[in-house]
Specification:
By secondary structure, the chain is mostly beta strands. It is about 5% helix and about 50% strand. The chain is built from one helix and eleven strands, in the order E-E-E-H-E-E-E-E-E-E-E-E. A hairpin with a 6-residue loop joins strand 5 and strand 6. The longest helix is centred in the first third of the chain and has 4 residues. The N and C termini lie far apart (about 40 Å).
């Protein structure tokens, strides 16, 4: 029933920016907590960002704090990830997810996943 679809990925030079979008089925973010994860080649899926409270407090991985910003537009059923000062280490498939625990950094807490969008950062 819950469907998520990421968009906005692409190829960008180091130091550049991208804005990812996650479009969800109606009501998803009224009922579930949104988060972003990424998976680089040969690596495990890792936490990037999430909402940590119903009031909009956010949580970030140390590797992206200060560069990435998660935001939401609940009436539009959309969550965003603004990524600035990108480096080649940010290259990965980025996944939008919806779960049940605010601020969780564990993939297990997220029950619904998008198909991912590729972000490639060149040096």
């Amino acid at each position: 029933q819950v469907q998520l679809a990421e968009s906005g990925g692409g190829l960008v030079q180091a130091g550049g920016s991208l804005r990812l979008s996650c479009a969800a089925s109606e009501g998803t973010f009224n009922n579930y907590v949104p988060g972003w994860f990424r998976q680089a080649p040969g690596k495990e899926r890792e936490f990037v960002a999430s909402f940590a409270s119903s009031g909009g407090r956010t949580a970030y991985a140390d590797s992206v704090k200060g560069r990435f910003t998660i935001s939401r537009d609940i009436p539009k059923n959309t969550v965003y990830l603004q990524m600035n000062q990108l480096t080649p280490e940010d290259t990965a498939i980025y996944y939008c997810a919806a779960g049940t625990v605010y601020g969780s950094r564990r993939p297990y807490s997220y029950h619904y996943w998008g198909q991912g969008t590729q972000v490639t950062v060149s040096s």
